[in-house]
Amino acid sequence: MSVRTAPISLRWLLVLHLLPGALATLVFVLLAAPVEAAGYPPLAAFLIAIAVGIVPLELGVVVWASRQADSDGHLAAIPYRRPLTGRDWLLLVPGLLLIGILGFGVLALVEPPIRDSLFGWLPAWFLAPVPLESIADYSRSAWTVTLVAYVALNVVLGPVVEELYFRGFLLPRMSQFGWWAPLLNVVLFSLYHFWSPWQFLSRVAGVLPFAYAVWRKENVYLGIVVHVLLNTISAATVVAIVMGALA
Questions:
Q1: Of the candidates 40, 132, 176, 220, which lies 20 to 30 Å from 11 by C-alpha distance?
Q2: pTM summary value
Q3: Per-residue model confidence as pLDDT tens digits over 183-209
């Protein structure tokens, strides 16, 4: 690879990969009860966790590192910005999106038994922030606010910040692992989702292809586009289910 940055030690890679997820999960757990008491679904507590735990920390690291670099503007800490050709965009985005959908979809089949057997002891709101059995227990206005925030945070802001942080900032600093770097990056990225550990396998399968593409093409924007599109499909499904239940 032509882009070189100073590698980060494994200890700090573990901290930087996992700390934002641990913080967000803690906020989610602490806020779930008061958010439900206020009349909002558990998903709203998770969205607050993204807004106060994940986005500020991850974006803050990127901005701080860019300022330390003292060059090339706000994204100086992100070296993976090599331009792609139009042909690359036309071929890679649909291909990676399809592979990601298949990866998430096929491996999602094993999630229920993993969740029930290994994590069934967790409270219902943790296992299902969108309570399919009791969607109507929350008001339409509460769901409207929650879903608008869900689209803003889970479709736009969340995946953009995650890609800038995980594939844009951290991945280039894992050069000591060679071809294994994207795999380690995605494994740690999947572990970082402490709020849904039963999705570990499907997340690895869905994210690994575009992580390798970002690494190979040295273009973080490719990961942003694919990640946003994958989350758009997921969010559209949630919104359709909720609105259908409220109709």
A1: 220
A2: 0.95
A3: 999 999 999 999 999 999 999 999 999
